[in-house]
Amino acid sequence: MPQIAPPHSLRAGLSWCLCNGQPVFLDLARDRYFCLPAALDPSFRRWSTGAPLASEALDQLVACGILESGGSGPTPATAHPPAQRDLATARPHGHTLSDIVGAIALQLAARRAVKRSPLSAIVARLEARRLGTPADGDDESPLRRVASAFVASAVLLRAQDQCLPRAIAAMRLCHHLGQPAALVFGVRINPFAAHCWVQWKDAVVVGDLETVRLYTPILVVT
């Protein structure tokens, strides 16, 4: 009888998505996005569907750091509900001066954190804070406050090319207000680019809806 290969799983710290039909990976520990060499791409695609794979092909995926032995088998591609609305354009806004000051302070702190700490450590801290976040509800008014406070803060603090610290800061403000949300990392290819935003259900809180629609989620932090 042919030998059955032991189960393999995606290496810890990796996430992946299908972007325009191409598997794209995020190595959180190394803060690195990448695609597989063309020779390995078919093997990974086959493994991701749960189809049997020759031991040699599995060994190659392990050797290049994509898979590791053990676990429960294939990890599905990252998926998240598509954004349909932008809370930054919702009315009424309802933000306060305190909200704006908080948004600015949190963005400055997030910029420092991004420079000094690995992305994996920042994400781990955000995940630890979610333990105190209540179950999801239907009241989006506090999240509108967050969205509008960040719009207002952009008058005083540059927002261009700052999607990561802005999203981290917005996520922290959501936690402070006791509001559930998701920090979403997305990618696009040809040409490659990455984006980060905060989303609640189908609504973008911080990150610009029209920009978000150009990206495929690769990692979702709740």
Major sheet: order of its strands?
Answer: 6-9-8-7-10
Q: What is the total tally of β strands?
A: 10
Tally the helices.
Answer: 7
Structural class: alpha+beta
End-to-end separation: 45 Å
| Quaternary class | single chain
Strand content: 15-25%
Could you give a short account of the major beta sheet?
5 strands, mixed
Helical percentage = 25-40%
Mean pLDDT: 91
The coarse silhouette is elongated
H/E order of the elements? Answer: EEEEHHEEHHHHEEEHE
Taking all Cα atoms into account, the compactness measure Rg is 19 Å
Report on this model:
This protein has 222 residues and is of the alpha+beta class. 36% of the residues lie in helices and 22% in strands. It has 7 helices and 10 strands. The chain has helices at 41-48, 55-63, 97-116, 119-129, 141-153, 163-176, 209-212; strands at 8-10, 14-19, 22-27, 32-34, 67-69, 85-86, 182-188, 193-200, 203-206, 216-221. The strands form 3 sheets. It has a 5-stranded mixed sheet with strand order 6-9-8-7-10. β2 (14-19) and β3 form a beta hairpin. α3 (97-116) packs across α5. The longest helix is centred in the middle third of the chain and has 20 residues, at 97-116. The protein is elongated. It starts with 7 loop residues before the first strand and ends with a strand. The mean pLDDT is 91.
What would a concise description of this structure say?
The chain has 222 residues and is of the alpha+beta class. It is 36% helix and 22% strand. The chain has helices at 41-48, 55-63, 97-116, 119-129, 141-153, 163-176, 209-212; strands at 8-10, 14-19, 22-27, 32-34, 67-69, 85-86, 182-188, 193-200, 203-206, 216-221.
